[in-house]
C-alpha cells in the first residue's frame, strides 16, 4: 500500500468516524419527543431535566449504540467471509449463518419466556451456537477428502443450509402463541429488540474483541484472497487460519443476529462500498467496511424510528429496501 493510498484511506476512515458521530447526535435529537441539540448536549453533561434524561439514556442512546454495534459487526463478518470464500456475494445471511442463529433463537423463545434476566445470557449464547452449527454443517457437507475446499461448493452448500433452516424456522414460528409469534416475526424482519444496557454490555466487548482479532490477521486475509495454492506457497497455514477466522466471523455475526434480528445485505453491501473507497488492502478495508455498516444501520433505524409508516417498521426492512437495488446491480455485474 503506497503512501498516497494510505493517506486517502486514512481520510476516508476519519470521515466515516465523524459522520457516524454526527449521525448519532442527530439521531438523539429525533423522535416522537423532539429535543433540540442544546437540550441533548445538556443531558450528556448531566444538566438536563429528568424527562429528557429518561428519553436519551433509557430509550434513544441504547438503541443508537445497538444499531452501531450490530451494523459494525455484520459488515465486518461479511468482509471476512467474502475474503475466505473469495466470493463477492458471500455474507452471513446468504450462507445460512444468520438462519442458524435464528433457528436457535426461535427454539429458545418457543420453549421459555422471553422475559427475565436469564434470557439475557441464554439468547446470545444459543444464537452463537446456532451460527457455529450452521458453519460446521456447511464445512462438513462441502468437504472433500484430499481436496481443497471449493469456495463455490461452500457458497452453494450455505444457500441450501439457509433454505433448510429458514423452513424449520417458519415451522416453529407457526406453533408460537400470539405474543411470541409477533416477537419472532419482528426478529426475523430485523428488529433491534436488544436495546437494553444489559444486552449491550455483553455485545460491545464481544464485537470489539473479535474486531481486534480479525484486524490483527489482515495480512493473512490479504494472502488468502489470492487462492489456496498461492497462500500455501507463501507459507500460510490455510486450513488453520481459515478455521480460526471463520469462527471469529461466525461469532461476531451470531452475537449481532441475536440482538438485532436477521438483517440481510449489510454484510454484503458494506465491503463492496468500502473497496470502492479504500481499495483491497484488508488493513483499511476491514475498519472501513465496519464503519459503513454501522452508519447504514444507524440511518435505517433512525428512519424506522422517526418516519411515520402507520406501524412500527423494523430497521432490517429499511436496510433491505435501501440495499436491494445495489444487490441487483452486483448480480448483473458478477461473472
Shape call: globular
Span between termini: 27 Å
**Class by helix and strand content?**
mainly alpha
Helices, by number, come to: 14
Task: Provide a descriptive summary of the structure in words.
By secondary structure, this protein is mainly alpha-helical. The mean pLDDT is 85.
Topology:
Blueprint: H1 3-29, H2 37-44, H3 50-85, H4 97-109, H5 118-142, H6 151-173, H7 178-188, H8 197-216, H9 218-224, H10 228-233, H11 238-260, H12 266-278, H13 282-306, H14 315-333
Helix pairs in contact: 1-13, 3-8, 3-11, 3-12, 3-13, 4-5, 4-6, 4-11, 5-6, 5-11, 8-11, 12-13, 13-14
Summarize this structure as a short list of keywords or feature phrases.
76% helix; 335 residues; single chain; mainly alpha
Quick structural gist:
With 335 residues, this protein is mainly α.
Amino acid at each position: 500500500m503506497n503512501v498516497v493510498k494510505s493517506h486517502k484511506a486514512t481520510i476516508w476512515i476519519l470521515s466515516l468516524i465523524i459522520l457516524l458521530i454526527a449521525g448519532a447526535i442527530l439521531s438523539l435529537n429525533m423522535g416522537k419527543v423532539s429535543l433540540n441539540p442544546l437540550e441533548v448536549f445538556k443531558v450528556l453533561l448531566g444538566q438536563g431535566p429528568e424527562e429528557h434524561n429518561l428519553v436519551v439514556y433509557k430509550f434513544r442512546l441504547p438503541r443508537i449504540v445497538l444499531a452501531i454495534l450490530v451494523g459494525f459487526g455484520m459488515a465486518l463478518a461479511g468482509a471476512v467471509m467474502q475474503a475466505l470464500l473469495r466470493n463477492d456475494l458471500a455474507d452471513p445471511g446468504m450462507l445460512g449463518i444468520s438462519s442458524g442463529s435464528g433457528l436457535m433463537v426461535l427454539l429458545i423463545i418457543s420453549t421459555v419466556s422471553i422475559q427475565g434476566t436469564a434470557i439475557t445470557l441464554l439468547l446470545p449464547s444459543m444464537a452463537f451456537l446456532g451460527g457455529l452449527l450452521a458453519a460446521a454443517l456447511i464445512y462438513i457437507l462441502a468437504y472433500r477428502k484430499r481436496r481443497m475446499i471449493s469456495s463455490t461448493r461452500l457458497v452453494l452448500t450455505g444457500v441450501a443450509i439457509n433454505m433448510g433452516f429458514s423452513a424449520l424456522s417458519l415451522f416453529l414460528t407457526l406453533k408460537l402463541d400470539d405474543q411470541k409469534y409477533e416477537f419472532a416475526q419482528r426478529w426475523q424482519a430485523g428488529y433491534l429488540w436488544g436495546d437494553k444496557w444489559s444486552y449491550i454490555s455483553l455485545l460491545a466487548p464481544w464485537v470489539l474483541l473479535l474486531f481486534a482479532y480479525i484486524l490483527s490477521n489482515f495480512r493473512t486475509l490479504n494472502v488468502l484472497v489470492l487462492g489456496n495454492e498461492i497462500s500455501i506457497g507463501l507459507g500460510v497455514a490455510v486450513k488453520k487460519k481459515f478455521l480460526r477466522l471463520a469462527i471469529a466471523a461466525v461469532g461476531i455475526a451470531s452475537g449481532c443476529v441475536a440482538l438485532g434480528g436477521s438483517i440481510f445485505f449489510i454484510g454484503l453491501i458494506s465491503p463492496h462500498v468500502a473497496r470502492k473507497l479504500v481499495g483491497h488492502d484488508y488493513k483499511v478495508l476491514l475498519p472501513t467496511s465496519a464503519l459503513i455498516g454501522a452508519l447504514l444501520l444507524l440511518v435505517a433505524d433512525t428512519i424506522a424510528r422517526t418516519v411515520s409508516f402507520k406501524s412500527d417498521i423494523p430497521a432490517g426492512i429499511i436496510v433491505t429496501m435501501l440495499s436491494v437495488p445495489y444487490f441487483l446491480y452486483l448480480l448483473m455485474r458478477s461473472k
